[in-house]
Design goal:
Chemotaxis Receptor Methyltransferase Cher, domain 1; 2 domains; binds S-adenosylmethionine
Length: about 270
């Protein structure tokens, strides 16, 4: 049995890796400046686990040196840092009532030319969940889905559109059989009709996007990482992007953020722009 993976030298190196308050503060500041995400005060463990390997790969022995490295190679390293320190958890049909509502409304209005924005798309699960439902409703309609995220590596993965068995388990069998393609190596992707209508871009929600363009904006499980000022700013950008009468959909734990905006509250985190 191997008990000393990496050997003594590796273990000593691991043991030596610590992070002090100054380095935590510097990383918090960079992440906040780049994304608006506020790292919690007690995020030492999280930083160590997410950036420890990076320091090893760069053969850097302390976070102080790493901050200096980031400052020296800012534009290259900051993307890595943002990828590592933001949370990308997502899955198909997450908070499923939102998708039921959206497709129900599209059917009710007999809409074909639907435009949807998955505004913190992570690896694309939210965008492809809507794509599956729209493809079932209307494979010939002119619907389009935009997925954006500040994290370049997440968008790269979303563009690759390759998912695994665990992901497959979240998709109803009938939709999987109709619109997914097994790649023969335990992974799957989507049919071309879905891939062609699903566009992914790196984009920071702290800046305005399109104007009066979307019928639905999914802004879910990202506001929780922002302070109130940035929450307001991001909601303003999403409302600007929505057509009048369009729908803003927030994560179930983020409903409070919509207070004070000119929105009609519908059910469970769904709002209509007045
Ligand atoms: C937890 S995931 C949410 C994924 C999906 N919306 C869902 O609910 O399953 C949060 C995503 O927000 C992204 N994010 C954080 N700050 C952002 C910003 N300023 N602009 C755009 N995306 C951001 C992160 O990169 C991450 O992929």
């Amino acid at each position: 049995m191997r008990t000393n993976v990496g050997g003594e030298a590796g273990e000593q190196k691991c043991q030596r890796l610590r992070i002090d308050a100054a380095a935590v503060g510097a990383l918090q500041e960079i992440l906040f400046k780049e994304t608006g995400v506020v790292l919690k005060k007690d995020s030492e463990e999280m930083i160590l686990s997410r950036l420890g390997q990076r320091l090893k790969r760069l053969e850097i022995d302390s976070f102080g040196q790493y901050i200096a490295y980031v400052n020296q190679h800012y534009f290259k390293e900051v993307n890595f840092l943002v990828d590592a320190l933001t949370t990308h958890e997502t899955y198909f049909f997450r908070e499923a009532s939102h998708f039921d509502y959206a497709i129900g409304e599209i059917r009710r209005q007999r809409k074909r030319d639907v435009k949807i924005w998955s505004a913190a798309a992570s690896y694309g699960h939210e965008a492809f969940t809507m794509a599956l439902l729209l493809a079932e409703y209307s494979s010939f309609g002119t619907w389009q889905i935009y997925g954006t995220d500040v994290s370049p590596s997440s968008i790269e993965r979303a563009r690759r559109a390759t998912y695994n068995q665990q992901d497959k388990n979240k998709i109803p069998d009938n939709l999987f059989d109709l619109f997914c393609v097994d790649k023969g190596d335990g992974t799957f992707t989507f049919r071309d009709t879905l891939l062609q209508r699903t566009i992914f871009e790196v984009f920071n929600l702290l800046t305005p996007y399109k104007s009066n363009f979307f019928d639905f904006v999914f802004l879910r499980n990202v506001l929780i990482y922002f302070n109130k000022g940035h929450q307001d700013k991001v909601i303003e950008h999403c409302l600007r992007a929505l057509k009048a009468g369009g729908f803003l959909i927030l994560g179930h734990s983020e409903k409070m953020a919509a207070r004070g905006f000119a929105l009609e509250a519908l059910s469970g985190g769904i709002y209509r722009k007045l």
